[in-house]
Amino acid sequence: MVPxxxxxxxxxxxxxxxxxxxxxxYDQELLGPSDKSxxxxxxxxxxVPTAVYQFSQYVCEQTGLKIxxxxxxxxxxxxxxxxxxxxxxxxxxxxSVAPSKAxxxxxxxxxxxxxxxx
Length: 118
Known about the structure:
By secondary structure, this protein is mainly alpha-helical.
């Protein structure tokens, strides 16, 4: 009976975390325009470290444990929109020239084989 209860509890906790993550993404419109996504990520960079610190202090007070101080999170100085657009442009340009490049390389390979078999 006890192993069944633990597996049910694990399932419920994982489902709650996954559901909360999906709700958060939908509520904050993270899959919408990149400007909103970037604003939400900047807000999260400011709020999350403070919340983690406060939670760790609460846990320390309640349990008597001493949690070591975590190092500061690294700062990323890049715009998601620019990185996303340059990545998409690179992938699409590679896909657009792929057939002509494949033809060119196969032609060169065929010529090489002809030269080697003479």
